[in-house]
Amino acid sequence: MKGILLPKLPTELEVVDFKDLEDNEAYQVHLKNQEIDIADRQLFSSCHLQNVSFKLSVEADLEFTDCVFEKCDFSNLKFSKFGFYRCVFKDCKLLGTEFAQSFLKDVQFQNSLLNYANFSSACLKNVRFSGNTLKESLFIASQFKHVRFEDNDLEKANFWETSLAGIDFSTNQFERLDVSPELAKNIKVNLSQVPFFAALHGIDIV
């Protein structure tokens, strides 16, 4: 599988207050312990966002390139139709966060809380979910290309109308997923997961 590109960050980033940035241009800075209000178009590039939260107006339009999010709380925010390129979410709280119709390329989610997060109709290319809790998360009608799920809790995650060809579920935990049976083919599972996927295709194991 193709490797995921890491964010390109300078060795040292200046810790700044977002309100002090000229024209709110967030380039090559460290934003720490802040609540940031965004009302319109905003590009974040080569930024480290640590313990940051957002207040977004309905007109907010965000794009993130080469960003690291660490211990940020973005719960219940609408990141719909936003772009994420070469980004890492580490130890973040993303309960119910909306990524619907967003574009994510070379993005990693690590050890984060993503219960009820919504990636429906999003395009995910070279994206890795590792060590997260994704209970009842939504990936309905999503487009997957080189997507990895490693050591996550996927209980009741919904992949309806999403092709799962090539997906490796073997290291993840779940008793139930919502999937389209005709699209749940050519996947990799462990022995304890075999009965669930067999039942989808009308196979009885005796």
Automatic annotation (TrEMBL):
<dbReference type="InterPro" id="IPR001646">
    <property type="entry name" value="5peptide_repeat"/>
</dbReference>
<dbReference type="Pfam" id="PF13599">
    <property type="entry name" value="Pentapeptide_4"/>
</dbReference>
<dbReference type="InterPro" id="IPR052949">
    <property type="entry name" value="PA_immunity-related"/>
</dbReference>
<protein>
    <submittedName>
        <fullName>Pentapeptide repeat-containing protein</fullName>
    </submittedName>
</protein>
